[in-house]
Amino acid sequence: MSAQVTARQRPASGAVRTWVTGARLKTLPVTLAPIAVGTGIAHSLGQTLWWRTALTLLFMLGFVIGTNYFNDYSDGIRGTDDERLGPSRLVGSGQASPRQVLRAGTALYAVAIVTGVAMAVAISWWMLPVTAYCGLAGWFYTGGPRPYGYRALGDLSIFLFHGVVIVCATAGVQLGHVPPLALGASVPMGLLACALLTTNNLRDIRTDAASGKITVAVLLGEKRTRVYYGLCVAAAFASAALLATARPWALLVVAAVPSAVFPLRRVLSGARGRDLIPALEHTCLLLLAFGALLAIGLSL
User: Fold this and answer.
1) Calpha distance 33→27 (Å, rounded)
2) Which of 20, 99, 150, 181 would suit a FRET pair with 106, their CA atoms being 20 to 30 Å apart?
3) Residue 92 to residues 21, 82, 111, 199, 236: CA-CA distances in angstroms?
4) Can you tell me the distance from the alpha carbon of 82 to that of 230, in angstroms, rounded to the nearest whole number?
5) 195-229 pLDDT tens trace
6) pLDDT tens-digit profile of 156-203?
7) Neighbours of 273 (CB within 10 A)
8) Which ranges of the chain does DSSP label H, i.e. alpha helix?
9) What is the set of domains in the chain, with CATH numbers?
10) Which residue, 208, 207, 202, is CA-closest to 224?
């Protein structure tokens, strides 16, 4: 009897792990760090309400994880993920059907949209256009007949969403308006988000080019993409230093410099393919450390 129960449980636990992997939870620092920064700014200006923080997390994570599933679906049916160097994708690997993955993304988007409408009613009407932007930008990144993520616009989208939108919306939800400081603080977060995307695109540069997916990395070529990564990281620290002219404690981000050493060394030394996966993971850690320190510095 116990053996039969165990046998039934194994596929279920395996299925859970499959969907968790498909959600790409390891990359969530690119979402959580800018939320922390926006919350820190709101705290410094006098207001942080727990229920608004909870709604912000539900809203952002619904769109981000939902978009991850939509990207998995769209890339999978196009054949982009048939030959991957990174973690396997649900559709491309055959672990889930396209319909199942599409359904999961749709359910998460529904949660995010309902949350956005609730915040528009309870806090401010401007959450309605923000909700519309997040939904459309997330789907058309790799979805639809002409996905802009296949036309070298992914970096701009990542900068806008994980930098400007998340930081400014998080602060705005708490305060009822977007302070200028939030716009300034969104710049380094957006730059580090671009650095994270660059490690992914550099790893996949050969397979992306072969499948017709034109990323910034494909356009720049391998050598210049490595320089581009270094510039994104350096510019993030430089822009945080500029913030210190208004908020001196923003210089706390200097303590995140050691976190940048490993991924910079790995990318600039010429690592390719699967050897870039640790660089991607450590860029996530850099984002987390940088975002936490900037959030603390801006909240003081």
Assistant:
1) 11
2) 150
3) 13, 5, 26, 21, 34
4) 30
5) 999 999 999 999 899 888 999 999 999 999 999 99
6) 999 999 999 999 999 999 999 999 999 999 999 999 999 999 999 999
7) 14
8) 2-22, 29-44, 50-78, 90-93, 98-122, 127-140, 154-159, 166-175, 180-203, 205-211, 216-220, 222-243, 257-268, 277-299
9) 27-299 (1.10.600)
10) 202
